[in-house]
Protein 1
Amino acid sequence: MNATQHDKKTLSFGVALVPIAAMLGLLIVGYGVMGLRIEPLLLCAAAVAAGIAWWQGYRWDDIIDSVVGKLAKAMPVIMILICVGGLIGTWMFSGTIPYMVYWGLKLISPQYILIAAFFLTSVVSVCTGTSWGSAGTVGVALMGVAAGLDVSLAAAAGAVVSGAYFGDKISPLSDSTNFAAIVADTTLFEHIQHLLYTTIPSFLLAAVVYLVAGHSGMIGDVATPQRVTDIVSALEGLYYFNIVLLLPPVLVLWGAIRKKPVIPLMLSACVLAIILGVALQGLSLRQGLDAFMDGFSITMFPGETDAIIADVPRLLNRGGMFSMMSTILLVFCAFSFAGALTLTGALNIIISRLLTVIRSVGGLIAATIGTTILVTGATSDGKLALLVPAELFKDAYRRMGLDTKNLSRTIEDAGTVIEPLLPWTSAGVYMATTLGVSTLDLLPWAVQCYAAIFFALIYGVTGFGIARLPATDKAQAVPDAAPLVAREQ
């Protein structure tokens, strides 16, 4: 806020709710009912928030400065998002991701089809950062395996969705993982590390369920279905596989462990992948740069590729810096709203009222979970389900002396992995259509997706796995909201 903040009008609680209600109303009606684009709806909500700020006495320059300030804080992670796109494209170019998929498919054991489906989609989604890509390629192949073995398709689909969203949740290549870190004001690797408190127990619980179910007599010892064989053969025909292709992910893993700067690390992994693609796959430097910018395409390989099974292009044709532009545009529109909303002080007033009801860490975690699920169901959009609760509860976490990585973890626990379990969301429709199983049928088997909520609630009550701010940071985190309440009353 500027130096003349004390001259501005203070909002009542009712007026403070207007921009939030406007955003939710626009998204529910505009996006959920009419199917309109999210970005212009967010800009309309931003206009409402800016109008309230203008009514309070703020100038246009004040509003723009607030929006720019929000975007400036997000810019480093936006740059990481761009690098993630280049990383995926170059790893496809080098054969790094196909090499992992290849060995995963070759090692499938029909006796352990459910646990194999869970593990394999987990590996692919961690490597690619995309739940839809892993479910729509390897997941489809695994559903063919399950059908050939007369295994419950609902169980197999649940295992695929659980594995796909395990990677979408913790992969540094995932746009939702990066977005959650952005909106909660924490760093990517701190966010991922803190996610492990709820994600690893959920992963182990799901693995036990699939292992027990796999030994229940439903599975027979049969050959690997033709679909998997065709994918393996196609990958063998396209790429020259060698263990050195694992060097790019090893480099990223080493850098993450040593806490090296993320952007130089990712760009170095891109360069290494391009070198491997040129040296081992016989592709050109120009094609490597094209994969880095525009994404990899199977047409880069010489010869006829039309006869290759359709699952292979769906797996390989992805990535590139430009592939992240739609996500980045959403970030800009979302932060335009957030910047104008912050200027009005509406969030301070709303949070102050919420804090009169929420008096414990467990209550705050539960309120975050409930709000995230509500926004996910109302808007059918996973990104907004991360943004809205983050903006609403960020200061509340700081006021309770909690690190905001608790917030980023909770909104992912209740948002990213819950979205495919709601039949009317885009993720729910995609998974059900792609895997051929209704959402409500696969839901009980998607253990990884919903188990984290229970662990989050348990941690909130017990205090285990809750990161707290140092005393000095707690004192400086957020000014006391009591004066706002007093002025309003």
Protein 2
Amino acid sequence: MKSKMPVLASVVALSMMALTACGGSGTKESTTPAGTAAPAATASTAKDTITALLPPVSPNYQKNFEQMSKDFTALYPNLTLKIEPASWEDVKQKLDTQVNAGSPPDIAFGGSDSIPKYIEQGLLMDITGTATPDMVNDFDKAPLEYMKNGKGLYGFPAYMEVHALGGNKEFLEKAGIDWKKVQTNGWTYDEFRQAIKKGVVTENGKTRYGFVFAVKGVAAVDYLGIMAKNAGMPHAFNKDLKYAYTSKNYLGLLKDLRALIDDGSMPKELSSVDAGKRWNMFLTAQTMITGKGLATFENSAKANNAKIKAADGSAVKDSVPVDYIVLPAPTFQGAKPSAATVVDGYMAFRGKKEPTAEHKANVVKAAYFLASGKVAATTNNDLFAAHITQSGKKEAANMKIDRNPDNVAAVENMLKNATPARSDIPSDLSAKAIKIETEVIVPKFQGLIAGEVTPEAMYEAVKTAAIAAFGADGIVKD
């Protein structure tokens, strides 16, 4: 998740304590948060503690931990929800350390794309037979699919966010860009390339770029992955389970992305731009368009605008008022739009010892509590994220939120073209693809951005690694 919510990474950095899974027993009927009776076979009145490792999912999320725990115990008097806070910087490392030690928390917040890895390690808990129909049916189908692998369900989704781009309305209009048309109809790579060229302006000896994307460190793969989905490669594997990044489209994409730097539309020093610097450049009028742009960035921009108006010294230094506009990523080589979405959620874990049926049911209750109703509505409103549960939508109806309606419509348009989940990809293939991404794609792409590696050289390196991992017949040849 660190790479998915970079702006929120600096919101909270709290210390953590070691976590251990706890067990329970008993058989008396209980009630789910949706207000329906849970099956007696998985209910319990015995005391039990459920542990959860949670990062700052939204700007105010961790401030609500105490109330969340109280509300959970009010709903289930025999249960305690023990929440351990973590920062984005250390949550993944902490979780991996505990998983490797065989004692993970009962629940951990993270990206659905990490599910195959934890399945391979044998400590994710399949909740298919424990989650009640009322729980499952509360969720929109598309995001719930992301929490599955094969026939198993390994947790509940918190939100389905679109990885879009974000533009400065004033600068877009000065460049003659019809941003409302782009929000509705999208744009091709050639249209996007010409648009960001128009956004390059030099004023008072300073350059404002047309486009800046955070690419330092692991953020590099975000940039490439988002664009690859719109270049005919929505996943690392095609429907025949052939590794997709050996396609000619991949080479074409690498050439196209490098061209944006060579055009002067992006800074030559792009390889040094991390998430914080990218956002700072956007707020200080150093770029017209930024990426990756999440819905919550509109909220962050408005908060900074208010500080500027109030002459608040905590506003970003040298920042200007920004009217944040959500924009889709361009499409490449005639491909159809395939909006990059991130589905993060509450994954259910087990220790080396098989949990009791009662404890497993209690973990599911806690995961559902966090992913639905008031908790979900409050968190998603804080993120400006779409609500994905019926219970969350009901709670959110009474909550005020200040969003640009054009941006709301733009996100809804992109969600119509959201990249579908692929629960059919075997976990071992996914694990190999992640290894190639980590060991080959990220460093080579960083070299490409820095001008040290050519598109052709990177493509050949990826192809060589793919053949070694999947065999000559396990890759796309076109």
